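G., before I forget:
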Amino acid sequence: MENTNPFHYEGELSWCPGCGDFQILKSVEKTLTSLNKKPSEVVLVSGIGQAAKLPHYIHANGFNGLHGRALPPAFGIKAFNRDLTVLVTTGDGDCYGEGGNHLIHAIRRNIDITVIVHNNQVYGLTKGQASPTSEVGMVTKTQPYGVVSLPFNPIAFAIAMDTPFVARSYSKEIDFTAELIRQGVETKGFALIDILQPCVSFNKINTYQWYSQRVYKLDNTYDPTNRVKAFEKSLEWGDKIPIGVIYRSQRQTYDETLDRLGIKPQINPAHNLIQRGSSQGVMCGVNTLPDLSKVKSLLSEF
Amino acid sequence: MSFDISIKIAGQAGQGIQSIAEILLKVLKLNGLHVFAYQDYMSRVRGGHNFMQVRISDSPVYSIKEDCNILVALDTNSVDVHRNEVPKGGAIIYDPHSTMVDSPDNRFIPIPMNNLAKEAGSPVLSNTISAGSILALLDIDKMDAEEFIKKQFAKKGEEVIGKNLKALAKGYAYFLENFRNWKFTDIKAQKKNKTILINGSEAVGFGAIAGGCQFIAAYPMSPSTGVFTYITGKAKEFNIISEQAEDEIAAINMALGASFAGARAMTTTSGGGLSLMAEGLSLAGVMEAPVVVVNAQRPGPATGLATRTGQEDLEYVLHIGHGEFPRFIFAPGHHEEAFFTTIHAFNLSDKYQVPAFILIDQYFADTYATEKEFDLNKVKAISYQPSVVSTPYLRYKITKDGVSPRAYPMQGDFTFIADSHEHTENGHITEDGEVRNKMVEKRFRKLKGMQKEFGKPTYYGDKLVPSGSEKGKAKTVFITWGSNYGVVRETVDCLKKQKRSVAMLHFNRIYPFPRKEAVSLLKGAKEIITVENNYQGQFGNILKAETGIEADRKILKYDGRPFTVEYILKRI
Ligand SMILES: Cc1ncc(C[n+]2csc(CCOP(=O)(O)OP(=O)(O)O)c2C)c(N)n1
Ligand code: SF4
Ligand SMILES: [Mg+2]
């Protein structure tokens, strides 16, 4: 049967058979379809890694940048054109390792984006080295005596940063994940969704079986707006791992800051609709000169 | 040139050198005089030894002098360091109560600045006292200074204005009463001259705004911070998004995101920050994302000399970013050129979808100069857009001139991907060798068009006879780039007065290298001398690689201080 989903990409996918990334792709596609948006109004931003290939597998706009550097361009895109729905698809290495610093500051800015972390607790693309979330003791070719550094706890960190939306999911739970992503997109401000994702090729510890035995869904007796309780929840890891919305709060977004300052990002005067045709048109110049009288008044200050 | 006076205001960081200079420069400018002012400062907020050099003339001036006619010494150390730079007939202004002077001769002019300041209402007014005395010494009416004070302190209220006016009058009167016979020189106001007083950072920042900049992300680093600060100060008025990034890696990647979304985006940095941007610049290369990068150079390696000047990043900028991709590199020579070059950088980066670098340095950034008012009618800010896009939209379509149609998200119902991998015409990852070749060749085909664009070198000096004839051509040609335009130009003027056959060839655009122009302009020169602020003679190396022409001599300076005419003359 033909897939009529406008976001569906027909083409080769280069992940290993059985990889949790296929499930996350399905969830993202599901969410996007439910949003009442056109593919042209959505941008998927990523760095480098298996997770970061996802923008190529969705029919929408994509910015597949550098390893660790998904969040800065996502900021640039959303700050300049807030009408775009911006999702970041990234890995645990990409987001918590190489790009860790950007995560701190993207949350501080509270830019209105949704960050989906495919957390497979390993470096998949580079063939199985430890990642910032690998468990202590995990043996790899670059950690032959086992990982000794403490794993990073993204949920506890995000709560400490007062992130507006913090959730954890498990890739196998496709509908559940899609719903969490939808809530993340609808949240005003930064949303972090850490998704436990089995890497069938390189993570022989945190397997489907391992996760399936441990994860449980938070029910409605849990109140994600209680920060202290949320922090407590974020420390739960081991025999039982909670999934669902772990923390919610509200804070001025970057867009709102710009509004308050009265700064209106100036989408180019050239930002008019471009016609579609059978062949590519020529490039033509469009005037982007700011108000000349204002420029003149700057000159008079010197 | 009927007069050419240099003033040095010296003291510790935090003593108010800049406040004195500010009044002085504004008043001189209002009197139609030409000024050129350079700050020599240490990387500290209090103490140490800093000075500001102000050169004043009735004709345009382009560099600083080693000696000075007037020294304003704000502490004892400043007297010791600089007294030998003041010739007979010059003046050394100092406060006899706070500054110790061994055997003062008749150059010394004691002004009790602190006491007068207290009389005027507060010790902090001593800078205004100094300004008043200097103006009296220069025989310049204090009316313009009064106007300046009223404007400058308008926000601080009547009381502050009143006290400053009183201090100005006291400093002025004290000099006249006690040193009436002290005739310095005939400075004549030239009120009809319409000039602006601008520093290098402002010239680049103003150019960025006039060029339609819509987004700037940067991380503070001397000496680049001035450009970032200037643009940010105007961000509200011009609806520019200005963000202080967490580091330079973020800054360049933010700018590339904004560029993807359609913004005219830029970033500013200096050496160390530029190194952090290297990978992002490579990303701009493969994504074909327009972005303007201002690199204000300081001497390196590593932290180097944070507040000093150098031209050491040229070869780095030529190659920065792994892999191969085309780029523009500009190094403007004076403030007006910097203003227009920045606008061109935005337009050309946009037109060819390549990063454009603007190389300035600490000397250039911090130097104030009067320039004739920029002609805003010449400003053109142009972005390039496809009129029609095909289905599917091919963002990286292989074209004859190498330029593919660049549209932004939401300009139509199409989608596209910008990718850091090598990619197909529609932006998807590819490892196909043939596609790879086509993409590399497409990107480099742009060079042909880029070569024809703005940025021919400037020839100054003995008349040039183009068509191969060597008659009337300069025997000695100085070659320089970036901020050394002014000092080399004045060196040429000076040698011409000695009837030497000399000229200067100044390069603003360094990449694509204006090869044809360089070869034809240098044909027939008997002696070629390069002048650069670095150890390796980097521009000379590029010249040789691009044209085969080798300089006969290299005048190089890498102590972190700018060139002077005297320094160059001593070495030829
Ligand atoms: C600057 C840089 N350093 C290293 C790499 C190599 N590299 C690519 S992906 C990756 C790790 C990916 O791990 P993760 O983000 O967890 O993604 P996964 O493949 O597991 O989904 C590394 C080290 C790179 N591309 N760029
Ligand atoms: S290596 Fe692991 S993460 Fe990467 S595609 Fe294969 S299974 Fe998935
Ligand atoms: Mg991973």
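Chain A has one domain: 20-256. The mean pLDDT of chain A is 95.

More on Monday.
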